[in-house]
Model the fold of this input.
Amino acid sequence: MRLYVYVLQGKDFPVQETFVLLHVGKHKSKTRVSTGTSNPIWNEEFVFRVGGVDEGDDVVVSVLHHDQDHHQSNVSTGLIGKVRIPLCSVAGEENQTLLPTWFITEKPSDGKFVNIECGKILLSLSLQGKSESTSGEKFLPDKQDVSLEAVKEDQGSAKDLGCSKDGRRRKHHDGKHIMKNFVNQIDKLFHKKEEISKRLNDEIAGESVTSNYEDATDKSCTAATITCTSFEEGLDLMPSSDGEIEEMPENLLGGILLDQKYLVSPSDLNKFLFSPNSQFRKELAELQSLTDVQEGPWTMLQEDITPRLTRVVTYMRPATKLVKAGKATESQVYRKASGNQFVVFVSVSTPDVPYGNTFKVELLYKIVPVTEPNAVGESSRLIISWGIQFSQSTIMKGMIEGGARQGLKESFEQFSDLLAKNYKTLDPAVMLDKEQVIATVQSEPKTDLKSAFLYFWSSSVVCAVLLSVYVVLHILHCEPGKIQGVEFYGLDLPDSFGELVSSGILVLLLERVYMMTAHFIQARLYRGRDQGGKANGKGWILTIALIKGTSLASVEAIDLFDPYVVFTCNGKTRTSSVKLQAQDPQWNEVIEFDAMEEPPSVLDVEVFDFDGPFDQGVSLGHAEINFLKHTADELADLCVPLVGHHAQASQSKLQLRIFLENKNGVETMKDYLSKVEKEVGKKLNIRSPQKNSAFQKLFGLPHEEFLLKEYTCYLKRKLPVQGKLFLSARIVAFYSNIFGHKTKFYFLWEDINDIQVLPPTLASLGSPLLLIILKKNRGLDAKHGAKSQDEEGRLCFYFQSFVSFDATSRTIMALWKTRTLSVDQRAHIAEEESDVSDPFLFPGDVAVVSDADPLKMSKVYACDLPGDVEFVMKIFGGGEMERKIMEKSGCLNYESTTWESKNPGIYERRLSYKYNHTVSVFGGGVTCSQQKSPAPNDEGWVLNDIVALHDVPFGDHFRVHLRYEVKKAGFDSKTSKCDVYLRIRWLKPIKFEQRISKSIMDKFRSRLKVIFDSFLKESVANSSLTLL
Done:
């Protein structure tokens, strides 16, 4: 009978020049040499004549390394590995054909490939013909020494197999029949793919997956399973790292899901996470809505010569918007377990999800000890990485990886939060406590004497001192010379050119010493000007610990210089001391900024070379620290690279420790909001913690950032992108997610150079545009969201289709001015705007007119009201009565500020509300600015009300001025009369002035009637309650 051996391909060989040598009895044959790849493809067929199939007859497949340096062909320089296949196992297969199977090559006993993984090889074997030993029965081997990894189909067809190259490899006359049978077997394999995949998903991770061939053999030799009596016993059976050197495995290629330090010993953390019936696992399953959780027992699996502790966990995952609920199987294997180091490999299969049979998700847990000098007790570090393995190629690979990444990220965020509730995390910011850092820095010994010695220890000073002493000794030992030449009494001139040169050298050296001394004294006078001072006030406190600088470089070609550092934040400046003649200065200084009302966004750092007054220093490099791009952990120990031509070439750096604290808590945010409300003209509320947390998580912002407003709008680029515009204390952010295509960016308020309102156009679909222009070279991280870049290199962002464009634009303008303009600049702008010809115009489009002439206004309403003047003025008092009356008159979302005294007897406040569709078909918003003052002779009150209409046709063309006169009705103080006057101030000319004026007159007349009728009803109801 004949034996057909098909050598198809190899995988993961340690070298690239390989060939295969086959041994069948006394016959040998070999493949061609494959070069340039560690995954060779041969696709060659070999035929051997065998007399029969007996136990002990094996096919030996050896993988050899070919040395290209030798001139002889196929010169072997070492055995890589070999596979031994009993012929009786081939005869025991269906149709005496072993389907294409991956065989793991056995390591050689000696040579250079002893201690490394030797790869695997894909083989197929078939017996054709009859013999006495095989007729009427099929043999099953009693022993199996071949390790198989997986069943896979051949990548090429039977036509790709090469022909024989020598006399020992010959074609059989019925080869076509053999190949047809081979193809039929592969076809059967395809039909069994679902069955095989299901079986593969139930295998334990780390154990080689067996083929149909192994299922027919004795499995007892492949792996030995030892049941452990307890989890702790299984860990003790694992080889200790002290007994053998075992490297820590690398993180998986998918990335890091969690890297955190905890105040707990590694062994306790390992037991907490993986012990049977772990309470943490139960709480995590409940948090992630996992059901039917079943944990298998930990068992010891003998893998090669290394025992592995393994278990299987199954559960039902909840349904999502895209994926139905399905079963998941976790195979957990300990790869390393010593006294203080643990590595657990987890393979997760989800066959019920779409394409679930094509991939497995892999997780690697690593628990290692860490040493924290400030931590009390043992601490450990938990690192969790992930990867994904595809068993077959699919066009959905990218989508599967993206979905797995997002799902794992969300799951392990919950994992991290739950674990942090049980064990304290060791964050760098926590370990580097502010008070401790300050105490450590301030306890550093002062080095004034040492720095002075190093500064004056120079050749010029030494020469000047020596020469001066020499001259003084010379003068003491010499007698006064006689007067000669042009000398006279009191004037002694040099008597030779040598004396003249010596005198000149001495004078130059003394001048140099004098300049150095003056420079040193001047630097000492500036020392400590801002260092060590305590911050004043309540608000945002910025504390900087300036530790040291490294590799500072000067613009001038000098070796040593005198550096100092200038810090600028929110318009305030602080300066460090000067370090003389230092290229790697050690400052160890603490600098604090006074309390700031607004949270700082950036800190500007610049290093100068001292040369007299500070304003004449030469810059050695600068840097900008964005507080929104650094976590508190990173700021607590920050190494800042300096920017500049010489600084970048020398890799200059500063080591800082920065702490940003809010000393006043929530009150600081409330004070900031109240200040912004005055600019905006409407009330702003602090968002809920859940809303703030989601906002911070979406844009990766620090926890102190709080959200003010959010608007739905379109970002105009080549095509409009619908999303949300977020306004916070320090940034303007935009986010959009359209069918998985995300657009996300933000920039600082300080980056904005100008904000403009553009009129509606056909391209904007009739919607006005809000144009935000950034400063040059600012906001480059948000460049992908900009529509264009002007000739000056500034980024331009266009936003449109706001629900209430006027209110949104006013809010954004007010926040920008509040954030970027100083107090003096805002006062100057207000003064300029108060001088414009139109007294009704004002930063918020409303103004208060205190001396309006009623003769120029039209009387639209008059009535007598019960009650005295103070009772009637409750209509404008801001209390519950006013709110009820305004709601009945058609006002929605009615908000008002409190009355504030501006001048003696004059009070002001602001209102904002919306009309319902009964009052106005267009709805629309209203902002009002009201001012009240006593009437002449103290007969009552005069209230002026400037009304600005928004989101109504031509609402920006006019303002409505109302004047309420509430006075006593004759001599009876128990009744009052109210007269209301109205005037329309046109800001822009329009053809429909008369028509619009008539409509406004009628609408306000009817609305005033509703307001005062409602007041009468409320007053009657209150009187009835009083009588009862």
Observations:
- The mean pLDDT is 77.
- The CA atoms of residues 236 and 541 lie 53 Å apart.
